[in-house]
Design goal:
The chain has 192 residues and is of the alpha+beta class. The chain is built from 5 helices and 6 strands. A 6-stranded antiparallel beta sheet has the order 1-5-6-3-2-4. The longest helix is centred in the middle third of the chain and has 22 residues.
Length: 192
């Protein structure tokens, strides 16, 4: 290259690769899963990643909310590796899509999720993790969260504290617009 072109192109040196925003990838996975499983159009309004220090997890869970354990294929009998939380509005939207074919415009009344709610929301939770794994497999060094699967729901936040291993966790927190005037949240929390 001539010197002018070399300066314009940064001297032939490629810029360092930017770190991948896993929270945004999880948001994309959740939007795809909701669209494919429920014909529900979610819009991610916020995607963030943070650390949850040892012992602080149980106090920061949606209650009421649906709390699925995260396992790795073939290790369902072991202690869970994390959890996937769905707020009451996201659970209600999944149920409404499957029962009435549409999401109501007003927020759901907060209530403890039932076994039926869990069964109806499990497909979209599992599809979210499958979509996330599919996106992660394209990374040169995929993180350990690739390959996690949805397990049984926890009965309440107290059961989470008893089941999860001690230690720090990584959390990806997503906020969604479900419908006009209606929002929801999903958290994926995995051991570091």
């Amino acid at each position: 290259l001539n010197p002018a072109l070399r300066r314009m192109t940064g001297g032939g040196v490629r810029p360092a690769a930017q770190p991948v925003d896993l929270a945004r990838l999880l948001g994309l996975a959740a939007m795809r899963a909701a669209s494919e499983e429920l014909a529900l159009r979610l819009a991610v309004t916020e995607a963030a990643e943070d650390s949850v220090p040892d012992g602080a997890l149980a106090g920061d869970l949606p209650d009421p909310g649906l709390l699925f354990r995260l396992d790795r294929d073939g290790l369902a009998g072991e202690a869970p590796l994390g959890l996937l939380t769905l707020c009451p509005d996201l659970v209600a939207a999944a149920v409404e899509c499957q029962t009435t074919g549409a999401v109501r415009p007003r927020p759901a009344e907060p209530r403890r999720p039932t076994a039926t709610d869990a069964a109806m929301a499990e497909a979209v939770a599992a599809a979210t993790l499958a979509q996330f794994a599919a996106l992660l497999c394209h990374l040169p060094d995929p993180p350990e969260v690739a390959g996690l699967t949805v397990g049984a729901p926890f009965p309440d936040p107290g059961a989470v504290a008893l089941a999860l291993r001690e230690g720090a966790y990584r959390r990806w927190r997503l906020s969604f617009r479900i419908a006009e005037g209606r929002t929801g949240t999903l958290d994926a929390i995995a051991a570091r």
